[in-house]
Amino acid sequence: MWPPEDHAGLARVRAATTLPIAAGENAAGVHDLATMLRAGSICQPSVIKIGGIETVAQAAILARAQGVDYVPHCFYFGPGFLASLHLAAAFAPEVAFELFFGDLQASPYHDAVRARQGRLSVPPGPGLGLDPDMEVLNRNRLGPPVMIES
Q1: What is the mean pLDDT of each run of 10 residues along the chain (150 residues)?
Q2: Cα(15)–Cα(149) distance, integer angstroms
Q3: What are the structural domains, with CATH classification, of the chain?
Q4: Alpha carbon of 135 to those of 41, 112, 132: distances in Å?
Q5: Residue 81 CB neighbour total at 10 angstroms
Q6: Which residues pair with 46 in a beta bridge?
Q7: What are the tens digits of pLDDT across the range 81-101?
Q8: What share of the chain is helix, strand, coil (3-state, %, to 5)?
Q9: What pLDDT is recorded for position 28?
Q10: In the 8-state DSSP scheme, what is residue 98?
Q11: From CA 105, how far away is CA 140, in angstroms rounded?
């Protein structure tokens, strides 16, 4: 559907099929998503685009209150991936998780967040659960390395 905020058009698409329609990955805030939910779609917000973890949590709660399924959009492999994974575990653990399946030259989290036998584990550390591998980040950035002291 283009443009993404054409919620009336989305409602027409949904009414013309029995297939579930997922939308919301381009929502620009919870109010935009709330309008889309009235069209009866699957709630699929992007933590990066909609405004962060708290906004996605609000969207998931709003979707549940309106009887709409929450399925997070996640085409990320960095902090957005970890945030989406935590949100999915909290609000939709029974739903299949969208996973970027490209073969990266280097991952900032190595094998810690790879699916094993069709399952992902939520990292248990503080914050998002893992710190990125700074060597990988520095090796793949433009410009001089960044040193972080703790």
Answers
A1: 83 88 85 82 88 92 90 85 92 85 75 79 91 82 66
A2: 55
A3: 7-139 (3.20.20.120)
A4: 42, 16, 9
A5: 24
A6: 73
A7: 899 999 999 999 988 888 777
A8: 40, 5, 55
A9: 84
A10: P
A11: 10
Which pair of tokens denotes residue 119?
């399952």
The answer to whether 29 touches 46, Cβ cutoff 8 Å, is: no
SS3 letters across 110-150: HHHHCCECCECCCCCCCCCCCCCCHHHHHHCCCCCCCCCCC
SS3 73: strand
Kindly report, residue by residue over 60-73, the tens digit of the pLDDT.
999 999 888 898 88
Amino acid at 10: L
Secondary structure letter of residue 104 according to DSSP: -
DSSP 8-state code for residue 96: P
Cβ-Cβ contacts under 8 Å for 134 (sequence gap 6 or more): 146, 148
- Predicted local distance difference test score (pLDDT) of residue 61: 93
